[in-house]
UniProtKB/TrEMBL annotation:
Thioredoxin domain mapped to chain residues: 4-171
Organism of origin: Zingiber officinale
Listed InterPro entries: Glutathione_peroxidase, GPX_AS, GPX_CS, Thioredoxin-like_sf, Thioredoxin_domain
Top-level taxon: Eukaryota
SUPFAM superfamilies: Thioredoxin-like (SSF52833)
Protein name: Glutathione peroxidase
Amino acid sequence: MAPSNPSGSIHDFTVKDAKGNDVDLSIYKGKALLIVNVASQCGFTNSNYKQLTQLYEKYKDQGLEILAFPCNQFYGQEPGSNEQIVEFACTRFKAEFPIFDKVEVNGEGAAPIYKFLKSSKGSFFGDSIKWNFTKFLVNKDGKVVDRYAPITSPLSIEVTKSPRFLPQTISEDMLETTDDKSYNSISNILFCNLLQKDIKKLLEVS
């Protein structure tokens, strides 16, 4: 297994959208990201797409973005074109989150972003992606804070741990409250983002 937390961040990468246009992931600075390799003909497709859509609808206005990367490496379960994949997700599941260009997630041809994700958070069975709908949770600074197996439902990632208790006094130190152990759920990362914004305002007027 590769060492965790390599230097750099998700924001350093540029990927292709479903139409082949470059997307600089630095546009997602300050947002929590859930990055998922998706497939249209997998046994996990229905449940994952439904729950990803629910999560996005609930948290998109609070700073969550879901980045979906189609992949056909697992028994050919994503055989369609980008256009077909987007139409499937948007028509059947009303997905509004961005769906990117089809990529490889394993092997020599793995997309650079997936090499980074895997080196940031391996699994008990090695770094490679084992199946469709493996999920990576990324904080506002572009650091990978957790990895979830395909069998982990998106809604179960919503709240996995409670934020640590807040200190009694407001200080500059509170601006650095995000860490891998305390904020590895979607709601907690978003809570931390809102907290930091409020603290900055208080510091500015104090």
